[in-house]
Fold this protein.
Amino acid sequence: MQSSNCIREASKACFNSCCANPHSPAPPSAAAPRRDFVSAILSTLHPSTTFTNHESLPSSRELLSSLRDALPNYFNSVLADSIRAQEYYHFNLSNHVCLDYVGHGLFSYAQKLLPASTSAPPPEERFFDFAYSSTNFTSYLLYGGEEQEFHAAAKRRIFRYMNVSEDDYSVVFTANQSSAFKLLAQSYPFGSQQNLVSLYDYDNEALQVMVEAAGKRGGRPQSAVFSWPTLRVNSRKLRKILMNKNRGLLAFPLQSRMSGARYSYQWMNLARENGWHVLLDASALAAKEMETLGLSLFQPDFLICSFFKIFGENPSGFCCLFVKKSSISVLNQSSTNMGIINLVPPRSSAIDEELHSTPSSSSEEVPSSEIVEVHGNKNALIEFRGLDHADTLGLILISSRLRYLVNWVVNALLSLRHPHSGNGLPLVTLYGPRVRLDRGPALAFNVCDWKGEMVEPVLVQKLADRNNISLSIGFLKNICFGEDKKKMDCGVGVVSASLGMLTNFEDVYRFWAFVARFLDADFVEKERWRYTALNQTTVEV
C-alpha cells in the first residue's frame, strides 16, 4: 500500500488541479477538429451542468439522445451492439458491467453454447490445453519448435490479426505477460553498457520482472517521468536518457492501460536512431489498433500482446512474444524455455488424440477454453470468432466508438460535485488526459468524500462489484508533481476503468451512476449496514 505521506501530498496536488474548470476551452492553437470534438462531448451534458445528487441524474435514454444529437456518427457503430446481442448475450443476462478487461478476446460466448452435432463438438469439448515446450528460446525462434497443426493455425491467425509479417518476425506463445517479459529479460544481454528504460505510469508486475533481471546483471533500470496530474511524459528528461551513450532496451507501451495516456510513436524512432533496441508492449491497445502502427516504418525488435477468453469472464489465455528475425542474434544463446507453450486440443477430444504428443509436464498444464475445434476435420480447424468480430467491425468503427464513450464518461464524472461543500468540491479526481480526441479508452481516478479526502480504491472496487460493475485498481508511479517537481517514489492507489470494442453507452452510464452515489455522504455506511443485514461479508471502512 502507498504511504500516508504520498496520499496526503498527492491529494493536495489533485485537489488544486481539480478545482480548475474542467470545461475550459481548448487553446487557440488547437486544430479545429479537436476543438469541435471537445465541444460536442461537452454539449452532451451542457457545459454549465453539474450534479450534486445521484437521484437527480438524467435517464440513460435522455443522455443517449443528447449524444446522438451532438455526435451522430456514434450510431454508425450499431453493428457492435448487434454483435454483442447475438454473440455475447451473457452480458445482458447477467446484467454485469465489465470495465476491468484489457486484451483481445479470442472467441464469443455463443460458441460455448452451440448444440452438439456432427459438425461441432459438445460444449465441454470446446477448449484447448497448454503444453509447455522443451525447446529453448533462441532455438525456437531460429528453427521452430515441435508443434502440430492446431498450434500452427493459431499462430497464422494471430499473425494476420496483429498485422505482423511472418517474413519479418518469429513468435512464441507464453503462459502470460509476466512469462513473456521474463523470457526476454533472461535472454537480452543486460550489462553495464546495456540499460533498460521504460515508459509506464503505473506499477506493472510483468515489467518488474525485467527490471529486476537488468539490475542483477549490472544494467541500470530507469523510467520516464510523468507530470502530475496529466501524466504526460517529461519530454526533456526522456530525450536526455535516450541520447545517453549507454544504450540498451526501451520498453514502450503505446498507451497506458491505467490512465489512457497515449505516447508518441516518435519515441521509438528516437531510440532506434540512437542505437537502442525497442520492446513494443501492445497489450493495452484496443482491437485493430495495430493497423495504425505501420510496422514497416516502426519496426520494433520485440513485440508483446495478450489474448484472453471471452470478454467479461475471468481472464485466462496466453501472451505472444514476437521477435524481429534480424534481432534474434542480439539475444544470448540461453537454454531457457521458461513459460513457452504450445496450444493443443483438449485431452477429452476423441478425435486427433495424436496431437497431444507435444512434450509437456502434466503438473504445469493450464486448462483453458478459447478455441473451437471443428470436428470432422483431421486437421482440427480453429475458429477465432472474437477476432473475426473485431475484423468485421474494423479499425475506424471501433476507435471512434471508444473515443466517444470514454470522453463522454470523463466529462460526466467531472460534472459530479459534492453538495453543501462551499465552492462545490469535485467528487472525482481524474489522472491523465481529460476530454481529448486522442486519449486512450481507459481512465484512472479516485473518489473523494465531501471533505476532499480519498475513498480507498479497494473500497470503491468492492462496492462497484456489489453493484455488478467490475473495475480495476492499481498504483500510479514515476510521477513529478507540485511546485518543486519532486518525483514520487511510492505509488498512489487509483481505480481504473477500461473500455473495449463491445462496451456500450448503457455500460458507461451505469458506471457513472454508481460513482454518483458517493455524493450521498452516508453511502458507504448504508452499504455496510445493508450487507450486514443480509448476512453478507462487510466491507471494512
